[in-house]
Design goal:
2 copies of one chain form a homodimer.
Chain A: E1 8-9, E2 12-13, H1 14-26, E3 32-43, E4 46-56, E5 59-71, H2 86-108, E6 113-125, E7 142-151, H3 154-166, H4 169-176, E8 180-186
């Protein structure tokens, strides 16, 4: 592939992207990241997270500003609707990760995009989290992602989505699961 | 347990919470929810999701306003830092779900909370998503949640966290995984 004709494609600086890949190949320690969110309870099901600092490329770094998000339950789930539910943020994370991957991979392959839009739906039976059934799982039973892509050759676009799925961090987490430890300081 | 002395505890309307549980016991169809996020690519790794409508309690419903969130990569990951990364939203979703559960369960048990705060950290080795190693997974390798709770008896507070973990939708999704299907309309 040639990148010299247009180093920025789909808004992706492919020259920097390839330089980053080369840097990581030369020193895999650069690739070890640690992300972080802090959360504070407000009232009832309403709480707020901030994402600011993270570790990566062998140093402590920070987003250009603290990003703050509210989560809550809607009234039908006995909340005050000050934000989306936690489970909706999972849908957003999945769509966002796959879409970022699509833009990067298309750019790396020299494929132009004019539109990427998606809808993610998740089915959940609240009999689980309400403690009313031990046979119903707590989380989503099924997630469905529907992508619409416009740009170059449709076959190439489909193959970009497939490669994004194969290399998506959130798709991996959501489909395969991750060990989670919980510590409690109660006093 | 008695709920008549204080129907609102920790900002949770326990009378409505118990009424909701009774309603679902009487008609399990009420518990079948479908959440939804729509996402639109902006440029590069920057994209935006909206959560507004959802299905639940046997009808199409909506949040009181559309909630819109940007995701992006920071400059070190060849993005423009217009929002947190998709993987950071997963940390937020996990903290938010566990915290909402803590508030609800404590209220249902008549336990008062004065503080619930948490930090969620996730370790990720980008050799996976960069396609530089087939032995490194794409997603987080480990998540750690640290809670600080203040309020009534510490033993009771710890038991509330444990029950929230047992009934958290996002904890279930993140630890056990969910089937995800992806459809593509490319043209």
């Amino acid at each position: 592939m040639t990148i010299t004709d247009n180093p920025v494609r789909n808004g992706v600086d492919t020259a920097t992207l390839f330089a980053t890949l080369d840097a990581v190949k030369g020193d895999p320690e650069i690739a070890k990241f640690r992300f972080r969110a802090t959360n504070t309870w407000v009232s009832g099901t309403h709480n707020r997270s901030t994402m600011h600092g993270f570790y990566g490329a062998k140093q402590e770094m920070a987003h250009r500003e603290p990003f703050t998000f509210d989560a809550d339950h809607p009234p039908v789930l006995v909340g005050s609707d000050n934000g989306p539910t936690p489970v909706e943020y999972v849908l957003h994370a999945l769509a966002a990760c796959l879409t970022a991957g699509i833009a990067n991979i298309a750019a790396a392959r020299g494929i132009n995009l004019t539109e990427v839009s998606s809808t993610v739906e998740g089915d959940i039976d609240l009999m689980g989290i309400l403690g009313l059934s031990d046979e119903v799982r707590n989380g989503y039973q099924q997630l469905r992602v529907s992508f619409t892509l416009r740009g170059d050759d449709p076959e190439k676009l489909r193959s970009v989505v497939e490669q994004s799925r194969r290399r998506s961090a959130v798709f991996d987490v959501v489909t395969n699961g991750v060990p989670v430890s919980i510590d409690v300081d109660a006093g």
